[in-house]
Amino acid sequence: MLALQLIAAVLIDRWLGEPARWHPLVGFGRCANWLEARCNRGESRRLKGLLLVVLLVLPPVLLTTVLTRIPVFGELIAVLVLWFALGLESLKRHIQPILQALLRGDMSEARRRTSWICSRDAAELEVERTAVESVLENGSDAVFGAIFWFCIAGAPGALAFRLINTLDAMWGYRSERFVCFGWAAARLDDLVGLVPARLTALSYALCGHTRRALHCWRTQAPLHDSPNAGPVMAAGAGALGVTLGGPTCYRGVWADKPLLGAGAKAQPRDLPRALHLVDRALGLWISVIVLLSVAGALL
């Protein structure tokens, strides 16, 4: 049943993408912004951030747990929740306009579009590199992490992972505003992403240039400041044969990111190659999950 629910959610995502209106994650994000603006002040910011993570994540996860236990109806809810948690088609729809702008030489539009999928300063963006990095990292966050936790804990697990990941994307910065308040969201995201990020890195390696990807993962990932993004992007860049990383500007502050991968800098042609790598990895995940489900049913 789990394999069928996964396939159904992936097909819905391919067919419809994310909901154009009334997306649950959009409403969740607005609620999180409203609470953060009122609570991220004064003393005990770490404690406030932790309490808000619990307040925002626990109720919808508990509600999902109750709803998915309803006979028949619960199975449909599980598929819909996983669909909401997946973001592959949405990622593709954000990348295509960037690629089109690059191909016609409209760098201003390419930077503007790229800034929608990352937290970097638009004026300082290396578009091709940033877009490829976003594809690889979002493959882990918006696809494989959700699928991993769906397999481990069903729809509640996938939802919990996606909500935590969303809070980390909103609050998990080391800026003066969020270094304390967003600490809980960032650390919890590191924890829930620990295993799926490494499975994602392995999948990228198996679906690309395997030996180079594994070498980049082993030697370069420890240099990255993120315990999960490092393996994912190092293995993904190695699989693609491109070099990522380097100086990066976040909200006016420059950070010197380690170089990841091997080969030339990312080019426009590498954007569809990165998306294709995620697609191949997804096919690998689905195949393995189906085989394990069939084997479990036969035993």
Automatic annotation (TrEMBL):
<keyword id="KW-0472">Membrane</keyword>
<comment type="similarity">
    <text>Belongs to the CobD/CbiB family.</text>
</comment>
<keyword id="KW-0169">Cobalamin biosynthesis</keyword>
<feature type="transmembrane region" description="Helical">
    <location>
        <begin position="142"/>
        <end position="164"/>
    </location>
</feature>
<keyword id="KW-1003">Cell membrane</keyword>
<comment type="function">
    <text>Converts cobyric acid to cobinamide by the addition of aminopropanol on the F carboxylic group.</text>
</comment>
<protein>
    <recommendedName>
        <fullName>Cobalamin biosynthesis protein CobD</fullName>
    </recommendedName>
</protein>
<keyword id="KW-1133">Transmembrane helix</keyword>
<dbReference type="Pfam" id="PF03186">
    <property type="entry name" value="CobD_Cbib"/>
</dbReference>
<dbReference type="InterPro" id="IPR004485">
    <property type="entry name" value="Cobalamin_biosynth_CobD/CbiB"/>
</dbReference>
<feature type="transmembrane region" description="Helical">
    <location>
        <begin position="277"/>
        <end position="298"/>
    </location>
</feature>
<comment type="pathway">
    <text>Cofactor biosynthesis; adenosylcobalamin biosynthesis.</text>
</comment>
<keyword id="KW-0812">Transmembrane</keyword>
<feature type="transmembrane region" description="Helical">
    <location>
        <begin position="50"/>
        <end position="83"/>
    </location>
</feature>
